[in-house]
Fold this protein.
Amino acid sequence: MAAEMQRSTTQPESLVSTEWVSEHLADANVRLVESNEDPILYRSGHITGAVEVDWTRDLNDPLQRDYLNGDAFSALMSRIGVTPDTTVVFYGDKNNWWATYAFWVFSLFGHKKLRIMDGGRMKWEKEGR
């Protein structure tokens, strides 16, 4: 008999529901960030108020095979309107694959208020949001 699978995480505060996101769409202290493998998705429609962070263009150094440097990260934060006090919620396609990469890069640079929207873009769309 197969054991029932349970969802667990070592940082449960890092995962937020689509309901939580919906309730915080007008919150000036929350910034939604969509990061997808498919670059066309954001332009075809996104959650109201979300900004795009492209994993290749925005998070990687254009000359080296490495993530961006501190100056580029600061410029990105300024461009997308994020301060150290902003809660950043990431979501995207492919089960949040690139959204979690963006989460990781932001954590490397010391941003503390980071969340992932459980279910990503697909769940948001399936719920008709």
User: Anything to note?
Assistant: The longest strand covers residues 30-34.
